[in-house]
Structures are given as structure tokens and as C-alpha cells.
């Protein structure tokens, strides 16, 4: 019976090509607009590292004096001071930890043929690669000895290596960061998370860095941040050393805690550390506070998905509702013109339920066709977003969830639009139309 309904629906759609085209176009435009905004929202809200997002934690400390406030809901700064980052890195414990900043260098090979390029860099600890699942295709991270001695070493990703050398296996080669020569100790696989969740201070949707140097370079070579530096009190900072010893916050810090017990132990260690610092004249607050937020909580805390994005999705669904309303009017006109045919079918024994289902199958087919065209419109919309906003390159795309959702939404919208017209036509009185015939 279902196959028969499909045959009838196809015949009906072909009998009114202009009306069919208008209805398919209406639902396709509505789906195109809706799926464009919904796809971007979906990619924004997707867990960026699902295998371990509940085990990676951003660390916050409250260093301010009583009475001082911060632009967060709990008054705790997003970042740490340099001295706190160094002290936390030195805490005992068998867990991965990574202080980090975003910096940048003029990268070149110190040859006449090598044109210098300005490149972002992640200045961090060697645990960063394990924590955030970067895969080495050649070499490895720098050693602890190299980190402690601030050895001039660097890790590149395969794209950067290919750009500079025309090949990926460049371990042992040299690259210049500014005027300083660095030895390449490792090459990672290309790593492009959709959301730069590990450093939301510098934009949630920026590009991930393609080169990495040890965190000890901050002190050894006065490597300053290219990100945010904030202060909560006046301090005279004449040079970079003063900044490192100040209460300015500019360092991000992440730890990997694999069990609730580890998290409890680490929280106790943070509290003990702040109490110890109080004795040295810092953390002058009656109530000490710290933050340990996993990846998804950290993104919510930083409002990665703004209210504007949510409103835009809502508006797109409202636009889809307008398209559905237009389709409803066209379906009413089309179905009621067939009232005579329905009357004959009813007189020959077709039940109201059969007539109702037949028309729902027709609007469902309409939704399927509109959804398919709508996916094409959505892809064009996402292409426009990618060309308009570079930082949306990874976000303005449709994964398989969105590809499957588009026809489901389109069919559901068309069925919703067709419920009333189908119900109205199935109530046709056979006798009325038989007299006319």
C-alpha cells in the first residue's frame, strides 16, 4: 500500500509542476537558511576532544585582595601569574600539566631564498602534546633536560615543515625564529581543532599554532605573550623581569586528572599552595578560591557560544516557519481542487484514514525533495560564511549528523504543513461530488 501511495504522490506532483516547484523551492530556501546557521551552531557546541574532555582541566587561582573583582561570574581570573604557573608546574604528582602562552616569531631558514613569515607559536611544556592528543609523525617532543636548559629546539607540524622545506621529515634540520637558530626535534601531524578550547583568551575560533617551543624560553629569551595580559592592581614594571614577578595574569595552565580522586588531591594541593603563598604576603583574601573546569565547562564559562548565535538559530527556524506557512496555503489550494477525485475514491470504498495517509505521503515526498535541494543551498551558504570569516573555516561545514538532519527537518516541516489540508480533504462527502459528476 505504501508503494501505491508513493506512486500516487509522484503522479500528483507531476500533474502540477508549477505548484510543486514553488513548494520545493520554499522548503529548500527555508532548510538552506536553517541548516546554515544550525550547522555552525552544531560545530561550535561539539565536544572538541570527546575522548578526554572530562579529564582535562583549566586551572584558575584567585590572587586578588579582598574587595577586588574580576569580569567573571565568580570573580576568578581566567589566567595565572607567571610565578604561579611556574610553582604549579613544580608541584609533585604523577599527572600531566602544561603552562602555556601564545607567542609568535619571524620564521625563516636564514637563506636568500627563504622569505620570513610571521607565525604564531605555542610556548608550552612537553606534556602539551600528550594532553591534547597531538600525533608525532617524525621525532618527538623535546626532553626534560632540554626544557630545563631552555635549549633552542622547536616542534613543527607537517604543514609548516612542508612549507619551509618541501618535505615533512625535517628532524635535525634548523629553522630560525627571529635571529635565533632552533633545532627541529619533532614533526606532528596536522592538528586543527574546530575550537581553540585550550586558549579561549585569544579567540575561540582562531587557528591552532603550527610550531611549539619549550615554556622555559619565556624566562631565558624574554618571550612575551601575544595574547591577553591583565592586571588587578598598579605595579611598576620597568622590564620583562618585573612582569614575570608581578601579579599580572597572562599564563594559561592545564592539567590532566584521570580520576575523581586525582581531582580531589589536586584541589587540596591548590588550596595548600595558596595558603603557603598567603604566608609570603600574597593571596590576601579571607576566603581562598580556585577553579578546575573541564573542557566543556570551560567553554561554557567563557561563553564560547554567544547569545547572538542562539538568537540567529532561532530566527532561522522562524524563517522556516514562514516557508511552512506558505506551503500550507499552496497545499490547501491543491488538495481542495482534488476534492472531486477524493469523493470518488471515498465512494469506491477508500477510508478517511487511507485518504489522509495518501496525502501525508505526498507532502513527505515533497519534504524529501525540498530537503535535498535545501542541502545544496546550505552548502552554498556555508561556503559564503567560510569566505566571509576566515576563523569559521572549520566550523562552517556539515557533518553527517547535519546531513541526516536536513531531510528529517524538511519532511517534518512539510508533514506539519500538510496535516490540516490532508485532514480537510479526507472529510470530503462522497455524495456531494457524485451528484456533480
UniProtKB/TrEMBL annotation:
InterPro entries: ABC3_permease_C (IPR003838), MacB_PCD (IPR025857), Macrolide_Exporter_MacB (IPR050250). GO terms for molecular function: ATP binding; transmembrane transporter activity. Its main location: membrane. One of its GO terms (cellular component) is plasma membrane. It is found in: Cell membrane. Keywords: ATP-binding, Cell membrane, Membrane, Nucleotide-binding, Transmembrane, Transmembrane helix. The keyword Transferase does not apply. Pfam families: FtsX (PF02687), MacB_PCD (PF12704). Residues 20-261 form the MacB-like periplasmic core domain. It is a multi-pass membrane protein. Residues 315-430 form the ABC3 transporter permease C-terminal domain. The chain crosses the membrane at residues 21-44, 311-335, 356-380, 400-425. Coiled coil: none annotated. The keyword Zinc does not apply. This is ABC transporter ATP-binding protein. It comes from Pseudoalteromonas rubra.
Amino acid at each position: 500500500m505504501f508503494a501505491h501511495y508513493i506512486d500516487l504522490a509522484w503522479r500528483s506532483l507531476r500533474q502540477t509542476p508549477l505548484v510543486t516547484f514553488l513548494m520545493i523551492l520554499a522548503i529548500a530556501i527555508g532548510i538552506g537558511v536553517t541548516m546554515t546557521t544550525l550547522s555552525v551552531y552544531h560545530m561550535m557546541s561539539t565536544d572538541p576532544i570527546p575522548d578526554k574532555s572530562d579529564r582535562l582541566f583549566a586551572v584558575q587561582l584567585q590572587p586578588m585582595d579582598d574587595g577586588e573583582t574580576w569580569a567573571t561570574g565568580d570573580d576568578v581570573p581566567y589566567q595565572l601569574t607567571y610565578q604561579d604557573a611556574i610553582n604549579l608546574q613544580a608541584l609533585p604528582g604523577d599527572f600531566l600539566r602544561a603552562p602555556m602562552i601564545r607567542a609568535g616569531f619571524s620564521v625563516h631558514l636564514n637563506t636568500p631564498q627563504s622569505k620570513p613569515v610571521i607565525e604564531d607559536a605555542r610556548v608550552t611544556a612537553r606534556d602539551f602534546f600528550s594532553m591534547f592528543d597531538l600525533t608525532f609523525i617524525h621525532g618527538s617532543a623535546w626532553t626534560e633536560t632540554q626544557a630545563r636548559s631552555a635549549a633552542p629546539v622547536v616542534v613543527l607540524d607537517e604543514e609548516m615543515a612542508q612549507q619551509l622545506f618541501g618535505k615533512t621529515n625535517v628532524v635535525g634540520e634548523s629553522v630560525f625564529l627571529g635571529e635565533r637558530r632552533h633545532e627541529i626535534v619533532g614533526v606532528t601531524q596536522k592538528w586543527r581543532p574546530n575550537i581553540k578550547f585550550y586558549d579561549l583568551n585569544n579567540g575561540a575560533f582562531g587557528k591552532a599554532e603550527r610550531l611549539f617551543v619549550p615554556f622555559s624560553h619565556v624566562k631565558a629569551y624574554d618571550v612575551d605573550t601575544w595574547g591577553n595580559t591583565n592586571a588587578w592592581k598598579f605595579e611598576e614594571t620597568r622590564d620583562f623581569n618585573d612582569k614575570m614577578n608581578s601579579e599580572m595574569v597572562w599564563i594559561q595552565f592545564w592539567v590532566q586528572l584521570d580520576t575523581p580522586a586525582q581531582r580531589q588531591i589536586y584541589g587540596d594541593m591548590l588550596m595548600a599552595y595558596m595558603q603557603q603563598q598567603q604566608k609570603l604576603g600574597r593571596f590576601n583574601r579571607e576566603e581562598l578560591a580556585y577553579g578546575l573546569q573541564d573542557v566543556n565547562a570551560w567553554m561554557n564559562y567563557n561563553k564560547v557560544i554567544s547569545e547572538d548565535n542562539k538568537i540567529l538559530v532561532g530566527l532561522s527556524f522562524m524563517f522556516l516557519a514562514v516557508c511552512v506557512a506558505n506551503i500550507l496555503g499552496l497545499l490547501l489550494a491543491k488538495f481542495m481542487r482534488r476534492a472531486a477525485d477524493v469523493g470518488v475514491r471515498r465512494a469506491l470504498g477508500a477510508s478517511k484514514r487511507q485518504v489522509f495517509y495518501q496525502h501525508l505521503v505526498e507532502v513527505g515526498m515533497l519534504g524529501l525533495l525540498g530537503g535535498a535541494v535545501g542541502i545544496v543551498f546550505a552548502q552554498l551558504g556555508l561556503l559564503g560564511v567560510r569566505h566571509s570569516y576566515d576563523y569559521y573555516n572549520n566550523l562552517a561545514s556539515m557533518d553527517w549528523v547535519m546531513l541526516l538532519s536536513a531531510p528529517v527537518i524538511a519532511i517534518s516541516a512539510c508533514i506539519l504543513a500538510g496535516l490540516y489540508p490532508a485532514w480537510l480533504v479526507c472529510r470530503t462527502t462522497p455524495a456531494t461530488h457524485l451528484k456533480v459528476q
